[in-house]
Amino acid sequence: MKTVLLSAPYIVPVVDRFRPVFEHYDLEILVAEVAERLSEEQLIGYAGRFDGAICGDDRFTEAVLKACLPRLKVISKWGTGIDSINCQAARKLGIQVLNTPNAFTLPVADTVMGYILAFARRQPWMDREMKAGRWQKLMGRSLSECTLGVIGVGNIGKAVMRRARAFGMRLLGNDIVSIAPDFILEYGVQMTSLRELLNEADFVSLNCDLNPTSAHLINAETLSWMKPTAVLINTARGPIVDEAALIAALQDGWIGGAALDVFETEPLPVASPLLKMDCVMLAPHNSNSSPAAWERVHWSTIRNLLNGLDIPVDDLDSFISPKGTL
Hints:
Helix 2 (40-46) packs parallel to helix 3 (62-68) and helix 5 (105-121) packs across helix 7 (155-166). The strands form 2 sheets. The protein has a 7-stranded parallel β-sheet, sandwiched between helices. Strands 2-1-3-4-5 form a 5-stranded parallel β-sheet, with helices on both faces. The protein has helices at residues 15-24, 40-46, 62-68, 87-93, 105-121, 123-131, 155-166, 181-187, 194-200, 220-224, 243-251, 291-308; strands at 2-6, 27-31, 52-55, 74-77, 96-98, 147-151, 170-174, 189-191, 203-206, 231-234, 257-260, 280-282. It is built from 12 helices and 12 strands. It folds into 2 domains: 2-103 and 290-319, NAD(P)-binding Rossmann-like Domain (Rossmann fold, 3-Layer(aba) Sandwich); 105-282, Rossmann fold (3-Layer(aba) Sandwich), CATH 3.40.50.720. The longest helix has 18 residues, at 291-308. By secondary structure, it is an alpha/beta fold.
């Protein structure tokens, strides 16, 4: 019998729903004690005890991967981002890394638009004033008056642009790869340099992967290129932004505000100055929240795991109801 380490924090609370599936495929489940993610040290504590893993943003470093040999054959990532896994080392060691691309495109894009609307129309701030007993009218902006810059025009970036275009926003894009001309023409996107995008955008949405070219892409220098009224939105990965530089930029008024769903350290430390800033909206890495999306990812992740363990999945669909549940 093969053993699977289950450490994805979104599926752990509902693991009992899926036990019949794992039992059907003769798989034993090792459920990790996890809050947000497993550290390198925690993973090494499980090394040698499992053949496959369903993980979240656990730190599968080269040391962890080597410690897990020869048993570990596949890491099935719950979600899209695999930046916490040393994929180069995994390839060299013959360990498959599988993920679920396009898993949360729609809810993340919706979240970005929610932040844009909140800042443009000043709704959270007027709500606070009203509840404090103050009849304070704050000046808002129509989105048709605003420019949106999207850094990373992949699946999520495109979905954000489609939504923004419906509101009449001017669209700027920046990416290290070429974007399909038909998309650019259909939505009136102007692809431009990072500096020009930051110079002109009223809202900057980060939708790129975390990789060596994007780590601390937003830093003291690039923040200085932004408008003093601009809002930075990060629903991608925390380390894309130099958090200390962002805090300084907000404190010094270099930019107008920020909406952050992800952080360099998660959970966000309680001493972070971000928690006390009125011009900042925060969320606990939750822009993927959607029951339907989570359900799809549960099943896609299980399917990837079975494929990675060379277990036929012809009958997997028999476990899935029309609503995507057992």
